[in-house]
Amino acid sequence: MPNAISGFSKLSKSEKIDWLIDTYFSDKEAARNLVEQYWNTDETIQKLHDEFIENTITNYYLPLGVAPNFLINQKLYTIPMAIEESSVVAAASKAAKFWLDRGGFNAEIISTEKIGQVHFTYDGDFKALKSFFENVKPKLIEDTKDITKNMERRGGGILDIELRPKTEDLEYYYQLHATFETLDAMGANFINSCLEQFAKTFQQEAEHKLEGQLDIVMSILSNYVPNCLVRAEVSCPIEDLKSKDISSPSLFAQKFKQAINIAEIEPYRAVTHNKGIMNGIDAVVLATGNDFRAVEAGVHAYAAKEGSYKSLTHCSIEDGVFKFWIEIPLALGTVGGLTTLHPLVKFALDMLENPSAKELMQIVAVAGLAQNFAAVKSLTTTGIQEGHMKMHLLNILNQFGATTTEKEKLIEHFKTHIVTHSAVVEAIEKIRR
Ligand SMILES: CC(C)(COP(=O)([O-])OP(=O)([O-])OC[C@H]1O[C@@H](n2cnc3c(N)ncnc32)[C@H](O)[C@@H]1OP(=O)([O-])[O-])[C@@H](O)C(=O)NCCC(=O)NCCSC(=O)C[C@@](C)(O)CC(=O)[O-]
Ligand SMILES: NC(=O)C1=CN([C@@H]2O[C@H](COP(=O)(O)OP(=O)(O)OC[C@H]3O[C@@H](n4cnc5c(N)ncnc54)[C@H](O)[C@@H]3O)[C@@H](O)[C@H]2O)C=CC1
């Protein structure tokens, strides 16, 4: 076991790499070469990446793919997707193309409110606390003026602050529950700055004007944003579903709806179903430099809002019309965070013609819906493995170090044979004999 190290953060980048290689690697030259191989040749770009996080030693690549042909609210987009899993970009592209011929996707913003809370304890009388809060509320807002003035000029800012008693769940526990409009910013830093100022003013005022002990526990935004909602939808007459892989549209529609119904009542299925949705959502969220952990946490909380974990997508068949939709909370930014810093994020946003946060919410929701449509369509028709393994073939070939000629031969071979890991291994061995 290696010894712990103190002061690691104070070492230079090259000293950190030296320590790491000396401590963990026997083939020191190979390890150092690998780390250096992933450095950007442009020192300015490398420095930028070094400074995104702490203790950076090199870069970790993910492929950036694009899915064309997304018609959203009658505007055509090519959507950027950063993801490691094969078949996701192909599936999104295929769903986009399918719906392009059937009127495209419609998306709408339902709401854009963000939330933050000051968590505190108080051991006195609730009535006294309530009256103190009502008196101090204008000052809470007034004291954040320096933080909020620019956001207010743009049309956003603090929407409201409420006092919420939580003592039934936890002794002495209360909240200042605040709502915000942060426009094109995800808003985490703006909200946290406001909340910390609320806490400071609240505590200071309480010391002179409130009987009983009031202690601030913490001030932080919530990544659960059920009132920052977007809805995306596709629909068409059932007979228009007919396509290369759908010979009986009405049977397909019934089976597809049944698959969604199952994900609405069965958590084991719902989790995988929603994972398929997040294949699309995370890929676009990452490509556009947004915080995918925040989105993931909020989306899954929303999926469980009724007490059990459910599908985020829904389907109906009414009057001969097939309708499929998603409704999800998404706190996204097109300014702030990494959005203007990472050159490829800038590229991705340029490709989307520099959307507002609202437009990006719609694009991301559509990517999730399209992904889910492709996956459930495969699951209820051919099965998932056929298409997924077709795309995964290159990964298996690369694992076995296949040459370009071997790849060409095997890709041709697997156009007419089912791809499984063992079938690929067998075929490689055969052509190498
Ligand atoms: C994989 C496909 C698309 C093949 O589908 P296919 O019918 O064999 O494709 P095709 O060769 O006929 O091409 C049709 C279109 O698909 C796209 N496409 C096709 N191939 C490519 C490619 N190489 N690169 C880029 N795009 C591709 C592209 O849009 C293309 O049009 P074109 O560009 O030719 O005009 C289909 O089988 C499919 O959609 N499968 C679903 C795959 C999927 O969902 N993958 C996610 C990973 S599995 C998982 O994590 C989630 C899951 C499944 O568990 C979720 C759940 O359970 O709900
Ligand atoms: N729990 C969480 O999710 C947390 C996330 N974070 C991180 O915070 C970052 C996001 O915070 P932000 O405050 O969004 O970014 P930020 O701190 O970069 O601020 C964005 C700023 O851009 C300015 N702005 C310019 N034009 C604007 C417009 N049209 N609309 C709105 N604002 C405009 C505003 O002053 C705004 O405050 C992400 O990197 C995230 O990972 C940080 C703390 C906690």
Give the distance, in angstroms, between the N- and C-terminal Cα atoms: 44 Å
Q: Unreliable runs, pLDDT <50, ≥5 residues?
A: none
Largest beta sheet: what is the strand line-up?
A: 3-8-10-9
Percent of residues in helices = 40-55%
Number of strands: 10
For this structure, the CATH topology of the largest domain is 3-hydroxy-3-methylglutaryl-coenzyme A Reductase, Chain A, domain 2
- Looking at the structure, what is the overall shape? globular
How many domains, as an integer? 4
Assembly classification: single chain
Alpha-beta classification:
alpha+beta
Going by CATH, the architecture of the largest domain would be Alpha-Beta Complex
What radius of gyration results from the CA coordinates? 26 Å
Portion in beta strands: 15-25%
**Largest beta-sheet characterization:** 4 strands, antiparallel
What are the salient characteristics of this protein?
single chain; 433 residues; alpha+beta; 3-hydroxy-3-methylglutaryl-coenzyme A Reductase, Chain A, domain 2; Alpha-Beta Plaits; 4 domains; 4-stranded antiparallel beta sheet; 10 strands; 50% helix; binds 3-hydroxy-3-methylglutaryl-coenzyme A; binds 1,4-dihydronicotinamide adenine dinucleotide; oxidoreductase; HMG_CoA_Rdtase_cat_sf
